[in-house]
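Pilot study result, target chain (124 residues):
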Amino acid sequence: MPIFIKHGSVIVLGEPKLTSEKKDKRIQLHIYFKENEKAVYHFYDDDGISFDYEAGRYILAEFDISQSGENQININVNKKGSYKPNWSEIEFVIHGKSEKWNILINGKPFLAEKKSNQKVIFTL
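Predicted structure:
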């Protein structure tokens, strides 16, 4: 069944698994990039079982995604909260870009693994 996703959207996926008892080691942010437009995505996570979020034990990450120049994508990540999630890596999967792009995450250059989409792995 086809799925239609609007340009400029960001979708988060965890690892495929049979049970929720197995924790994610990496999450994926699928970025459906639209040239010359900025995308902002807010991601929230906590332990999911307690009220510890009331004491600040959560993570709230804001991702600002924009284009600069002819072939550069900037991803700025700002996070709040003291929660340490089980996952430690974020894999950015950039859809809609056929040519090679330079990717900066918080100002640091990353090499993209080019297959059908450009993939970059970032440790939060």
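One observation from the pilot: Strands lie at 10-13, 26-32, 39-45, 59-68, 72-80, 89-95, 102-105, 108-110, 113-114, 118-123. A full batch analysis is planned for the follow-on phase.
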